[in-house]
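Please check this.
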Amino acid sequence: MIWTNEKIAVSGSIDQANAGPVADRLCAAIIGAITIVDLGRVTFFSAAGLHMIESVAAAARAADAIAQVTCSGPVWQVLDLCEATDLPGLVLDRSPRTAAETDGTEP
């Protein structure tokens, strides 16, 4: 996890082993009107990751804020399959690579 003044970036796998601690750090970071969370480099996203996203959404709502989340292909796929792409408190964006994979324009 890389945390800067502009955004929080998470890479690698989000699974049962780390989703709780990642959720705790992301939720603690929601202090402004908009918090940018970059999951564009997440390569594996389990059901525990879905619970993490739900926690982030709840924290954003509680803070009267928005978490803007950039999703990698694996993240978007799980959220889409679980019909969790419109959670209140979140604005989800597919990363440019994810969009290219979806529409077939990737080389």
